[in-house]
Input
Amino acid sequence: MAVNLKRSSGGGTAEVNVSRRRMLGWITGTGLVGSGVLSALSNFVFIKPRATYGQPQRFSIGKPDDFPAGTRITLEARRICVVREGSRLAAISTTCTHLGCIVGLSDTGFACPCHGSRFDTDGTVTGGPAPRALPWFKITLAPNGEIEVDKDIEVAPGSYLTL
Amino acid sequence: MRFALAIGTFLILFIHGVVLYNQFSHKWERHQIAYFDQARAQAKSDAERAALEDRKPRIEQTVVADFGETRVARCVTCHIASDDPRFSGYQQPLKTHPYSVAMGDVQKDGRWERRHKFSEFGCTVCHDGQGRGLSPEFAHGNDEFWPDPLLGYATQPTWRKDLVPMLRGKEYLEANCAQCHPGSEFKGTPTVNRGMQLFYASNCYGCHRIEGMSDGTIGPDLSEVGRKFKIDYIYARIKDPKSVLATSIMPRFNMLNDEDIKALVIFLKSRKGRNFSETEMERYHLRATGGAELVQAHIKPVAINPAQMVKQGEQLINDRACTACHKLGAKDGAIAPDLSFEGLIREPQWLDAHFRNPRSTMPDSIMPSFRFTEDEFKAMTAYLSGLRTAPPAPTPEATYKALCLRCHGEKGDGRGPIAEHLDPSPRDFTKAAFMNSKTMTRLVGSVRKGVAGTSMPAWGKLLDEQQATNLLGYIQTAFVKEARTDLKPHTVPETNPVPSSPESIKRGQATFVENCAGCHGKRGDGKGPNSLDILPKPRNLRNAFFLETVEDKRLFDSILYGVQGTAMPSWTDYGFDNNTVGDLVNFIRNLNPKPKGGQNAGTI
Output
């Protein structure tokens, strides 16, 4: 048995005779190839874990009043330093960009105890083996009045949250 | 064939599509997108809009390590607006967690401030549930294998349908509040406190131990019951113990209504064997102190007015759950003897001693020692000894049904409704060999004077000589079923011919350990290794009250010629003579110092 199919090719239409066998072959082929493609795509779900263990990347650090103007307060557990200048707030990472030690506050900014990297108050490298400046994280005021830091989002150094 | 193949491959393609869709699309993503949209629409300032910038759906989680194991709460992935006060009017999951003054939240400048910050406490510390779950079914603990379903909200499919309404309600959350706020005076947990009062007032403490609270030994230790069992199990277990475990001997506490049981369940759910607020040192002190003082401290004593003693005694007996085990009038706990005519069968001093310590009058009683004040003991004794109305019993059969059936059973086989809780067990009348080998005088004596140190009271005030004989006649025809024959008198000495001396006792002990300990036990307490297979159970020879009433003659008879209808053999067959038995009797008598008052089974 033959099936008449209208098939558009190029500019005009032409009637093509397709045998039932060819037709079923196409359908089967499409199904198999489609399944193959989809199952290959499905694997992408495993490339990145959905949830990571450990502390969450977005967290609340308390009320703005907890950080008086002109202070630089490090939160050891969160590995950030909260900088408050007047009514402006920022969160700077305290994880050394060299090998991941926790950098401490120093008179000139930050200093890494492991290999002597030095950073200025904005986190820019001033000495030692650190390859990059300390990143700044996005800092926002949550609707409940607390400050939230999102370590998944890095912002340009010098971008502050103005209260 | 080819057609089927074509359909098949398309089916596979379709399934793959569904799988792909499920893998990459999540409900929580939709909730988060909805939240972002709503929040953007509600944003009033640039700052609020800026806060939402760059936010993409992702799994949000709180990690809390301060409360026992490390808890990961991903609840906020769906309940993303839980700490956003603008969403208080929305539907779950996008609803603000309510603020409550009771939980310590305070309002400052028109803004609520939480006492229990979600970043510090997480969610599962208060609510239970599966913190890592990302679909409502698993996260809420709705699958039957999750041990801590969302307290008071989630119910699992295996739970009894009729109990489900009682297993819901936010009162259940108090069980988790009590993990950090254990004090019975803490105002935030009224239901836990009420449950604790009920635990004492319903005499639960008599059987159950809770670390630092009570020291009962009959029932299971409940120190960690909240960690081990779900609320449906605890609820069903209190409401109808036998519905959960057919062999349970826990009484049904009929005086507790559903609300009372709920309070008890919440109290018990809060017993998790740990407390996040206490230090190791406090815990050590708690373990070191017994429960007794605490029990006393928690039970409000009733001020007894001497003029109304009887009435107050009655009130006490009703309030303090005595009828959960005992029968009293229409109330019947079906575990312990009938108290309806207690004044006729027990003396006031016996009752008083039995109240204070049941084992001081009945060494094998399972009744716990409940704690009452001196006056309360007196009031209850006064009430019980005033119960002097004998049940109507016109015929011996009616007498049997009214007085004997509860223990000796409908068929007279010693398996009455409460028999399994009595030790020694009631006599099995169908063992004709025993019944027919005892003299009528002894049987009538047992009925009228009772059997000391056992649950058999003296019926002398209810039955005179003739009535007792008639009753025994009924038992003979109804249960023994064999006619009595003349008894051949055994030749036994009237009194022990061997004078008691350390040497004699030592010889007796050697004989006892060699021949008797298999059944009667090394200590003579009737709990030898063979005792498990024997009915009636071997006699507890340390029951001083019983032994005191047994004459040497009877001991000689029982040992030399055996006790028919029981496992006690005739020891003459094993070469025992009067001297061997004399030593044995001296040994047995030596086990039992003279009982110290309180006991008088047969004073008519």
The radius of gyration of chain A is 29 Å. Chain A has two domains: 2-46, 58-162.
